[in-house]
Amino acid sequence: MSKSKSSESVKVVVRCRPMNEKERAAGFERVVSLDVKLGQIMVKNPREASANEPPKVFTFDSVYDWNSKQIDLYDETFRPLVDSVLLGFNGTIFAYGQTGTGKTYTMEGLRKDPERRGVIPNSFEHIFTHISRSQNQQYLVRASYLEIYQEEIRDLLSKDQSRRLELRERPDVGVHVRDLSSFVTKSVREIENVMNIGNQNRSVGATNMNEHSSRSHAIFVITVECSEMGVDEENHIRVGKLNLVDLAGSERQSKTGAQGERLKEATKINLSLSALGNVISALVDGRSSHIPYRDSKLTRLLQDSLGGNARTVMVANIGPASYNVEETLTTLRYANRAKNIKNKPRINEDPKDAMLRTFQEEILRLKEQLKKRVGKKERRKQRRRRADGGRDGDDQEEGETEDDDDEDKGEYWKEQQEKLERERRAIVEDHSLVAEEKAQLLKEKEKKMEDLRREKEAGEKLAAKVKDMESKLLVGGKNIVDHTNEQQRVLEQKRQEIAEQKRREREMRQQMDNRDEETLELKETYSSLQQEVDIKTKKLKKLFSKLQAVKGEIEDVKEQHISERQEHEQIQDELTRELKLKQLILENFIPQDEKNKISSRMFFDEEEESWRMKPITRLEEDHQMMSRPQSAVGYRRPLSRDARYKAENVLTLAMDMPTRTTRDYQEPVIDPKTAAALEDALREENEIQVDASDHSSLGAAFSSGTRHRGVTRPRTGRKSGTPSPGNPLYPQPRGLVPK
Ligand code: ADP
Ligand code: MG
């Protein structure tokens, strides 16, 4: 557990899933074979099989075939990584591969089945068991969950799923997602809950879950902070961050034929993944000094894990069937390259953004506050005692411990309340007081009681808060208990030992294999010329086949390269065409002035890495709009004699108007019938003139549009719609026509 400064390679393992029902039913040939003991994988390309090509062989840290168990993978490959996270290293696990090859199965697995749980749930168990067995350490565990889809980051734990988050970079904490929510979790159940919520949100945002999940990257982040007393008698905090990454499917998205928006979408979908490939290539190339981390969100976010200070494991998932062989080979080549990435893992000790420190300080502060409250009470209590005549003024309370503090507190409140109640009753029963005075006194007492209650509540709240915060800091054996019994524990240990042994055996075998070839050449002595010829021929054959394999590999890579290049050229063509169109529009339809204005408002946002426009209203920075021409309407004529400025001065330049946010006022339209009825109803009684014989006037009162021209009906002089107070809005019908 030394703070190793030495570099170590990214660990790469390959896992091949079993044939699925469909593949078996369709009778697909299996083209992948694995040598688990040696960590080798052989792929026979059916296309080239006839041309008696040897199978392609790849060697990895370990390989897992279709019989591999989740727990074996965990014990052999992931457990050491999670262990180092618990020591304060950053760790990352990537699952890479074509869609449907078992990335999600490896990362999450089937949650309900303990046998088939993936790395993420297994790591929960591991982390909390570790904490429960720890001594003299305080832990804080929190989890975040995010997704990158089309280069947009979504917080899978936030309430607002429509929001997109941004990446920020700070020298002290590095690249991080701004406003990403994280949940402090106290147990396996709680962190599982967090994961479930995230998974639900993941599918909520997706119109087609299968397609969405195959095109997005999901990152589950567990941060484990541990505080421990160092040899220098100071508390030290180590922070380990575990990134669990389920990458988008590595199959190439078809971009051919796509145009405009669709093309942009298609290029964006796998941008992060191809950027990841470029970063890996640049890292292992050795010649390039520039590593294009900034090309995508994923690579920026996981910069530490690739050539940085984290420990990294990559799981390359493949399928065994013949129709997948191209993708399988691509994946294996990709993984083969990643093997050569060198990281320099480092323990994060006392980082500035440790949440545990903030927690500890906050708890201390609250406790201090609580103590002060108690102190105040104590003083009051003593004062009260003294006022009582000092009957039991002996300092009995001196040796008070924290334990009887609680009890004491409760008693104190009760006492106070009872006292106030007694006083209140005394006032009620006191007949010598005038009613008014009594009411006044009672009011005062009630206020006091209210204050007392409030104070009590505040104290309780504070205590609850302290308790809550303390419960989040996990301490082994106390607030998190290990339930496994001795037997299970031994079993666990044995399993881990076996895993370690297997790993070592594999390493040794790989080394032996390499050495065999070397020593063969050195040690050989030949008894006859014929033997020498035989042996050398054999060797030659071996070397020749090796050469062929390498040549074949070169051909393959070339082919792949060419097809990639063609695709890129096509994209470039499309983009150039689009650019030309935009330029044409710009040249032919946008006046030069406007163009200048716009271009002077443009600026490059370093944080966002995109071009943006400054708002128009910020005049002080916008010189083109600052100076008003002197000849502007209502102002004096130009003073300048300089011919150069004259022309400018008489120009009236149109101002950039900000977009309007208001509307013209429009009177509400009232249906004329309603208006007439209303007006009628609101007229005062004596103003109503009724003339049953005059049909035209009655008609005028009710016919629409003639209301204002009506001659027979007097005006009420009151605005319609505002009845005087007391007048009902709708008076009783009064029968306008007398009998
Ligand atoms: P991906 O996430 O790479 O698209 P999935 O993890 O969804 O692929 O796997 C596709 C299917 O294959 C799932 O039904 C899964 O249960 C199954 N599967 C994958 N790997 C294995 C394995 N090692 N053993 C058994 N079933 C597997
Ligand atoms: Mg998946």
From TrEMBL:
Subcellular location: Cytoplasm, Cytoskeleton
Ranges in a coiled coil: 435-578
InterPro entries xref list: Kinesin-like_fam, Kinesin_motor_CS, Kinesin_motor_dom, Kinesin_motor_dom_sf, P-loop_NTPase
Listed GO MF terms: ATP binding; microtubule binding; microtubule motor activity
One GO BP annotation of this record: cilium assembly
UniProt keyword list: ATP-binding, Coiled coil, Cytoplasm, Cytoskeleton, Microtubule, Motor protein, Nucleotide-binding
Biased composition, class Basic residues, residue ranges: 374-386, 706-718
Source domain of life: Eukaryota
Principal location: cytoplasm
Region (Disordered): 374-411, 682-739
GO CC entries: cytoplasm; kinesin complex; microtubule
Bias kind Acidic residues: ranges: 394-409
Binding site residues for ATP: G97, Q98, T99, G100, T101, G102, K103, T104
Keyword Signal: no
Kinesin motor domain location: 9-341
PANTHER family: CENTROMERE PROTEIN E, KINESIN-LIKE PROTEIN
Homology family: Belongs to the TRAFAC class myosin-kinesin ATPase superfamily. Kinesin family.
Protein name from the UniProt record: Kinesin-like protein
